[in-house]
């Protein structure tokens, strides 16, 4: 074997190891966020489904690398405000968890989820437009932000999930439009 073959193998092994480590880092982040969500919110079967989807998504995007890895981390950070919003709203208004959380979503919780995700969506759109690969960054960020936020807002039911999805998509589109105005 020539020296160049050995060097090529070593470089390839280091490259693959870095991608596997990034995927494992994504799994660790998903585990930490899931434990945080379980501690803060009442859980349903949907919570565990969203946690599994978040773990698979973060591991895949972390392994993929590039703009998708950057977008995945940005999306997790963007998904934290919708994850914490219902807890903060009900801590100040009802002294703890919402008593109707398992039965039906309340308007206050839906507005908190929608409002925070819309605001965060604006920032996701702005940051994605500045990335060297904006479409990949935006797709990864919106996906992981939705899954992270749904760990908290999905406990309020379908309306809470719609609030976070609609807010992030509308906010991201608005962020893109603000950064790229139409030229006449």
How would you characterize this protein structure?
- The protein is mainly α.
- Helix content is 83%, strand content 0%.
- The chain is built from 6 helices and no strands.
- It has helices at residues 3-40, 45-64, 66-93, 107-130, 134-153, 158-179.
Descriptors:
mainly alpha, 0% strand
Please write out the topology:
Elements: H1 3-40, H2 45-64, H3 66-93, H4 107-130, H5 134-153, H6 158-179
Helix pairs in contact: 1-2, 2-3, 2-5, 3-4, 3-5, 4-5, 4-6, 5-6
Structural class: mainly alpha
Taken together, the total number of domains comes to 1
Number of helices: 6
Q: Please estimate the helix content.
A: over 70%
Question: Overall pLDDT, averaged?
Answer: 81
How would you describe the shape? flat
Give the distance, in angstroms, between the N- and C-terminal Cα atoms. Answer: 62 Å
Could you tell me the number of beta strands? 0
Low-confidence stretches: none
Oligomeric grouping of the chains: single chain
Précis, in short:
By secondary structure, the protein is mainly alpha-helical. The protein has one domain (3-179).
């Amino acid at each position: 074997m020539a020296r160049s073959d050995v060097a090529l193998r070593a470089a390839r092994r280091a490259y693959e190891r870095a991608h596997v480590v990034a995927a494992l880092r994504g799994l660790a982040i998903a585990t930490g966020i899931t434990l945080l969500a379980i501690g803060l919110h009442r859980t349903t079967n949907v919570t565990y489904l969203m946690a599994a989807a978040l773990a698979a998504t973060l591991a895949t995007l972390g392994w993929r690398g590039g703009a998708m890895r950057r977008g995945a981390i940005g999306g997790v950070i963007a998904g934290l405000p919708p994850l914490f919003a219902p807890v903060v709203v009900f801590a100040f208004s009802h002294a703890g968890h919402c008593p109707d959380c398992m039965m039906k979503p309340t308007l206050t919780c839906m507005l908190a989820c929608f409002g925070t995700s819309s605001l965060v969506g604006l920032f996701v759109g702005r940051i994605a437009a500045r990335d060297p690969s904006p479409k990949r960054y935006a797709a990864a960020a919106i996906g992981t932000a939705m899954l992270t936020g749904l760990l908290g807002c999905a406990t309020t039911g379908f309306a809470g999930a719609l609030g976070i999805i609609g807010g992030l998509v509308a906010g991201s589109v608005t962020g893109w439009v603000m950064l790229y105005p139409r030229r006449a």
